[in-house]
Please model this.
Amino acid sequence: MASSDKPETKGQPGIASAALFGCCPACGEKTLFEGMLKFAPTCRLCALDYGHFNVGDGPAAFLTLIVGGLITVMAIVVDQAFNPPFWVHMLLWIPITAIAVIWALRVGKAALLAIEYRRRAGEGREKGK
Ligand SMILES: [Zn+2]
Model:
């Protein structure tokens, strides 16, 4: 995308920053998440209704596969390089896997919501208030 044809995204965060920091796609405040993985019902600042977006758990399987693949490769590399006892693998990879999956899910869900928001905004569909 050329930087010259900027759509009306004034005050809106980019999809990447919205995804990474859990920003509201409308006002850019970090209000998207209520807990670790749960979206807040609405934006605390601009009252955008997050429940309106049907992101669901679409990215879950996909992201889990990617994270699982990456961690398997890392585990094999570590095993080949250092040949640690099995409990070291347990201690290392179980928490890393959990953190990586949660982080990837957060980013994935926030990215989907931001993209969905932009698509709707682009189509000019007005939400009744
Ligand atoms: Zn907002």
